[in-house]
Specification:
Structural class: alpha/beta
Bound molecules: NADP nicotinamide-adenine-dinucleotide phosphate
Oligomer: single chain
Order of helices and strands: EHEEEEHHEHEEHEHEHEHEH
CATH topology of the largest domain: Rossmann fold
Number of strands: 12
Strand order of the largest sheet: 8-7-6-9-10-11-12
Radius of gyration: 21 Å
Distance between the termini: 31 Å
CATH architecture of the largest domain: 3-Layer(aba) Sandwich
Number of helices: 9
Length: 310
């Protein structure tokens, strides 16, 4: 019998309890699963989420893994008391949600849908949009989410460039990497999707210089993290007419303060960090798969590299 402590916050427990118990049963694992912890030294696994119930991991001396329910780990990766292996979330439900958000907002900009949805003057403008094949898209980040989105955008017909830290080869995608590949990746892009983690290297990756490389009129989609964009440079590029639009799901401060200029800017669409969320049914199976692997002595999936920060 193993002990699994659900420390991802009391509010999440009702939606996770049944799927976690089911996934444990399906995996043949006998576990004491609880949102309460009386003896940290007896805990084998911690299921965690930012804002959860632990800030000091030191007393969890037997813990074999901390299983994060979020894909992004920037709020926990720097916790020096967390010496146990840390796994982040790669969940098919989360990925599917992100693909839908990115496809929907890409197509909105590609098809210039707003011209017809918001047309109070009833202007009859028969200009047809180009085909997707004529609209270059760049996805910054080719991880679990970025690659799924790049692949879906490619399937619609967009020529897609992906950019990552390490060199990659994916059929149908132009893959660039490293600091030296960034300018090439952004040059001429008409839609840019940000799916990078927040790390010291990625902060303000879109700034006055790099925004200057994208095509005039480009749309920026940011479902990654608010810190990836220099807010002032973004507003300046929109006001100068260099950028056509920005659809932002994530912000340096969330909820986005009411007096933040993004709310009122006509070139910005704000979505309230809803691009994708971890789905209990699918995520519970991912968590339990990792518990099963650890119990069998197999390597953990989705292990966070502390040095890289993601
Ligand atoms: P992931 O699998 O870890 O992928 C991260 C990608 O970013 C990788 O391709 C990585 O390159 C690349 N990268 C990291 N640092 C880089 C650098 N300095 N230069 C170039 N490329 C770099 O992460 P994921 O699961 O796709 O998630 C991405 C992010 O999405 C999360 O960190 C989170 O911030 C965000 N997110 C947002 C929502 C939402 O609702 N808005 C939901 C979930 C996640 P390598 O492949 O070479 O390592």
């Amino acid at each position: 019998m193993i002990t699994v402590y659900f420390a991802a916050g009391a509010a999440r427990w009702p939606s996770y309890e049944a799927p976690l118990r089911q996934a444990l049963a399906e995996a043949g694992i006998t576990a004491a699963l609880s949102p309460d912890c009386t003896d940290p030294a007896q805990v084998d696994y911690i299921i965690f989420a930012p804002g959860g119930d632990i800030s000091d991991f030191t007393p969890f001396t037997r813990c074999k893994a901390v299983l994060n329910l979020w894909a992004g780990v920037e709020k926990i990766v720097g916790n020096t008391s967390l010496t146990q292996p840390l796994c982040r979330m790669v969940d098919p439900g989360l990925t599917a949600g992100m693909v839908e958000w990115v496809l929907g907002h890409s197509l909105r900009h590609h098809l210039r849908m707003d011209r017809h949805i918001l047309n109070p003057a009833h202007i009859w403008d028969p200009t047809c949009p180009p085909l997707a094949a004529e609209r270059p898209v760049t996805v910054l980040g080719l991880g679990a989410l970025g690659l799924a989105c790049a692949t879906a955008l490619r399937a619609v017909g967009f020529p897609v460039t992906g950019w990552s830290r390490s060199e990659k080869h994916h059929p149908g995608l132009r893959c660039l990497s490293g600091p030296q590949g960034l300018q090439q990746a952004l040059t001429g892009a008409e839609i840019v999707v940000l799916l990078l983690p927040k790390t010291p290297e990625t902060e303000n990756i879109l700034n006055a210089d790099s925004l200057g490389w994208v095509a005039k009129g480009a749309a920026i989609l940011n479902p990654g993290r608010g810190d990836l964009i220099d807010d002032t440079a973004l507003l300046a590029a929109l006001d100068a007419g260099h950028l056509g639009h920005a659809t932002l799901d994530v912000f340096r401060t969330e909820p986005l303060p009411q007096d933040h200029p993004f709310w009122a800017h006509p070139g910005i669409t704000v979505t309230p960090h809803i691009a994708a969320e971890t789905r209990p049914a699918t995520a519970s199976r991912v968590v339990v798969e990792n518990i099963a692997r650890a119990e069998a002595g197999a390597p953990l999936l989705h292990l966070v590299d502390r040095a890289r920060g993601y």
